[in-house]
Write a structure and sequence with these properties.
The complex is a heterotrimer of chains A (464), B (192) and C (191). Chain B has a single domain, classed as Alpha-Beta Plaits (2-Layer Sandwich), CATH 3.30.70. Chain B is built from 5 helices and 12 strands. Chain B starts with 7 loop residues before the first strand and ends with a helix. Chain C folds into 2 domains: 99 residues, Alpha-Beta Plaits, CATH 3.30.70.20; 80 residues, Alpha-Beta Plaits, CATH 3.30.70.20. Chain C has 5 helices and 12 strands. The longest helix of chain C is centred in the C-terminal third of the chain and has 18 residues. The chains are: A alpha/beta (464), B alpha+beta (192), C alpha+beta (191). Chains in contact: A-B, B-C. At the B-C interface, strand 3, helix 3 and strand 9 of B face helix 2, strand 4 and helix 5 of C. Strand 9 of chain B pairs parallel with strand 4 of chain C, so a sheet runs across the interface.
């Protein structure tokens, strides 16, 4: 397997040193002289993949002076059937590994899909921007050979149960020292805090991300209900993100007794795998996710866009705090877009102050405020990619930035549309989440939850 | 006979950063008709631009057709596949027989001979076969490509897409007038 | 890419040495010891002399060769970077002559092993007498396929007017032209 430390790379043979990637890199990890090939500072890089998205320096297949395409595909660990052009900035792929695992009859293959993938995957097959296709996606995954098509959205609902209760607990019981509480679903953001602000790690929610919560549940509860030996499970995740592979290989992410998630594919890699297998995506029927771990609420669905975690959390936290349903479901004031959006919600006695940070570049200011004790917020959502996961580094790449802006807008609208069409729109009302607590976890923040669903962070200042 | 000079796109080498966005958008605009959507994943054919980023030791900029008034490429084309149409020199890629003479004729290197694609598939010769390892095999069609100032798209896409605004569409008559005016103003300051 | 031989008209003096070299290169007979009857003078390039220009014209070995695409018998193929006419299967339909925009193809009588080939059945009426007709085939430059040292015409030109253009050469020239185009614009500023 390719080392996780080299998830994001710049092909020095192709790079012209235009440094457009350096402009979008939130952590100044791209180094090099103008007009000369760039390299990535691995102590700084958070694997967000924004450089991969913006890079426009392609490898011309007619240029005989460069390494042949077949060798480049191999270097990048991509399927040899991939036809699309290659660019200087790239992420190491894992589709080959998944393809081989899918061919194994020994393994019980489980897959989960992030909320943002269902509004972007179809773009890789020529569908309009933001086409919502959870049904075709589930059908494609089944045809690829997955035994269970579960969902990260279920894990998102579970995250809200834990994170919501954690927030309420921190506000009610603590001395305020671990407030504001930051979201922890974005692995690039978590890595950033670990390496740049280790003194503030206590402010990160101890909740694992939806991907990792799903993973640990699949290999424990999921194995139990399907009567499968968890050692035989291959747990794959389809993510809009190039950093999720890093997250799944973090040493501590093995509370099920195994790797909680074995391998991550980006949205683009899933599309490449579907094409490799000759599946006619456009004409697939709509199929449902498998139950119970593929059931989700509207709150889980909107995790994919900026402000979505906040909105989902508030829908649940409001009820936890006031024992009454929130006066309205659609909390437009946290549906951020620009850099930092702030809001205040009256929840009974409490003036709940929240902030949503879109783009890691905007996080430093808030972190400095927290460090100086000037930060008055209770809860802050941070997403590394501007606009949230819908604009992630593993999402379909576009020929031009303007196409990408259009796509991000459409994907966002599709996610909210999806939320509004679902019957259940609050995480705590998801019946299969309720059942999971009754049958397996006990209660949020309880002993079992603490063991499986929460984690600890490591200071990485000056190291990788 | 047209009284106006042909327009052309030219790059300012001090602004160009070498990002190849111009090549990208050139491809995107010309292959729209071939059902290429905007996502990179939907592109099955190689990227074929009609302008080429050139990097020399000291300078970098894209090179493309100057739409010469006395176009040597057109004058050398035996079959008349290169014509002047609404103030631009265009190659009829479907007519091109791949004789390569225009490549010899163009002094800018603005023409490239590359395979022709339709709907992501290489266009195959009607009858011409090529002797390969296993006998006679199909041969792909190869045609001359060059800038057509985005004839179908309307306006040159590269000019609009350049993140550095390094490309300009030069309309010679206007540019001359603008420069003359500026020179007159400068003269006023000098001889006051 | 197919290579091709091309002449610089400003250098050509119209001496036709290239034509002779072409015939010698393609003939199995010794031109200098044979009688005129034994030698067919069918050069595969034609020196054109007008008031304005003198230059030999020969096949450009087009990538999408119209002659080959027009040949209903599939006699014209692309082999070893050469557009090649298979004279054994040519039926003399002359469509390739109509297709070629350069006039690079000629019809000649077909010789095999130094002997003129006759028609198997076709006769022609020569002032009331039925005669056996000679087999006619299309003939054009084959870049002296198989000849050591490449095209003979280039070797003999006294003014070095002929040169071969190949894939590397054209790519190199294009690169060089582009580089020159860039330096030519180093003074260009839009303000």
């Amino acid at each position: 397997m390719v080392s996780r430390d080299y998830l994001i790379n710049i092909d020095r043979e192709l790079c012209t040193g235009c440094r457009r990637c350096a402009e979008v890199c939130p952590v100044n990890a791209i180094e090099g002289e103008k007009d000369a090939p760039q390299s990535i500072n691995r102590e700084r890089c958070v694997f967000c993949g924004q450089c991969v998205q913006i890079c426009s320096v392609y490898a011309s297949i007619f240029d005989e002076s460069i390494t042949p395409r077949a060798i480049k595909l191999k270097e990048r660990n991509m399927l040899e059937t991939v036809k699309e052009p290659l660019f200087a900035a790239y992420n190491i792929g894992h589709a080959q590994q998944v393809k081989e695992a899918l061919a194994s009859s020994e393994l019980y293959k489980i897959v989960q899909c992030a909320p943002a993938v269902r509004v972007s995957l179809a773009e890789e097959f020529g569908f309009p921007y933001g086409s919502l296709t959870p049904g075709k996606m589930a059908a494609a995954l089944r045809r690829l050979g997955f035994d269970r098509v579960y969902d990260t959205n279920f894990g998102a609902d579970l995250t809200i149960m834990e994170e919501g209760n954690e927030l309420v607990k921190r506000i009610a019981e603590g001395d305020g020292k671990d407030l504001p509480m930051f979201t922890s679903c974005c692995p690039a953001w978590v890595k950033y805090v670990e390496q740049e602000y280790p003194e503030l790690l206590a402010h990160l929610s101890s909740c694992k991300s939806p991907q990792q919560m799903s993973g640990v549940i699949f290999k424990t509860y999921g194995a139990k209900i399907d009567n499968i030996n968890p050692a035989k499970i291959l747990s794959a995740a389809i993510m809009p993100c190039t950093c999720k592979q890093f997250e799944c290989t973090r040493e501590e992410m093995a509370d099920s007794g195994y790797r909680d998630v074995d391998v991550v594919l980006t949205t683009r890699e899933l599309a490449q795998l579907i094409k490799d297998r000759g599946i006619d995506f456009a004409n697939l029927p709509d199929e449902a996710f498998d139950l119970p771990l593929g059931n989700y609420s509207g709150a889980g669905a909107i995790f994919g866009t900026i402000g979505g975690v906040m909105e989902a959390a508030l829908r649940t936290c409001y009820e936890l705090m006031t024992k009454k349903p929130a006066p309205r479901l659609e909390l437009n004031f946290v549906r951020g877009g620009e850099g930092i959006r702030t809001a205040m919600i009256q929840a009974g006695e409490l003036e709940l102050r929240v902030a949503v940070v879109s783009g890691l570049k905007n996080a430093a200011k808030i972190l400095e405020d927290v460090k100086a004790g000037r930060c008055q917020f209770h809860f802050i959502e941070v997403m590394t990619c501007p606009g949230g996961c819908i604009n992630g580094g593993g999402q379909p790449k576009f020929l031009l930035p303007e196409y990408r802006e259009e796509a991000t807008k459409s994907r966002k609208a599709s996610l909210y549309e999806h939320d509004s069409q679902l019957n259940i729109r609050k995480s705590h009302e998801n019946p299969d989440i309720q059942k999971l607590y009754v049958e397996f976890l006990g209660e949020p923040l309880g002993h079992q939850s603490h063991h499986l669903l929460h984690t600890e962070y490591v200071a990485r200042k000056g190291q990788n | 006979m047209s009284g106006t000079l042909n327009s052309f796109v030219v790059a300012n080498p001090t602004k160009c950063i070498g990002c190849k966005v111009c090549e990208m958008v050139c491809f995107a605009v010309h292959d729209k008709k071939d059902q290429v959507a905007m996502a990179v994943g939907t592109i099955a054919a190689p990227i074929i631009p009609r302008l080429y980023l050139v990097r020399s030791e000291v300078l970098k900029m894209p090179i493309q057709c100057r739409h010469c008034e006395d176009a040597p490429c057109a004058n050398s084309c035996r079959i008349g596949a290169i014509k002047q149409e609404d103030n631009r020199i265009v190659i009829d890629e479907n007519e091109c027989i791949g004789c390569k003479t225009c490549l010899l004729a163009c002094p800018f290197g603005a023409i490239d001979l590359l395979p022709q694609f339709k709907d992501g598939e290489a266009v195959i010769q009607a009858n011409l076969k090529e002797e390969g390892e296993f006998g006679l095999e199909e041969k792909a069609k190869t045609v001359a490509y060059k800038c057509d100032l985005c004839q179908e798209h309307g306006e040159p896409a590269c000019v609009a897409a350049c993140p550095q605004q390094a490309l300009t569409l030069v309309i010679p008559a206007e540019e001359k007038k603008r420069r003359n005016r500026q020179a007159a103003v400068n003269l006023l300051a000098a001889l006051k | 890419m197919n290579s091709f031989v091309v002449a610089a008209p400003n250098k050509c003096i119209g001496c036709r040495t290239c034509e002779v070299a072409c015939v010698v290169a393609h003939s199995s007979k010794n031109m200098f010891t044979s009688t005129q009857r034994e030698i067919e003078f069918n050069p595969r390039l034609s020196v054109i002399k007008t008031a304005a220009v003198s230059a030999p014209i020969q096949c450009r070995h087009c990538e999408n060769a119209p002659c080959a695409n027009a040949c209903s018998e599939g006699c014209i193929v692309n082999t070893e970077g050469v557009i090649y006419i298979n004279q054994r299967t040519c039926i003399g339909c002359k469509t390739c002559i109509v297709a070629c925009p350069f006039g690079a193809i000629d019809m000649v009588s077909c010789s095999e092993d130094g002997e003129k080939k006759q028609q198997t059945g076709l006769k022609c009426d020569d002032s009331g007498k039925l005669c056996i007709k000679e087999k006619m085939v299309a003939n054009k430059c084959d870049l002296c396929l198989g000849r050591q040292g490449g095209p003979a015409c280039m070797e003999v030109c006294p003014t070095d007017a002929l040169r071969i253009v190949n894939s590397d050469g054209i790519a190199g020239a294009t690169r060089e032209k582009r580089r020159r185009s860039v330096s030519g614009l180093s003074c260009y500023r839009v303000n």
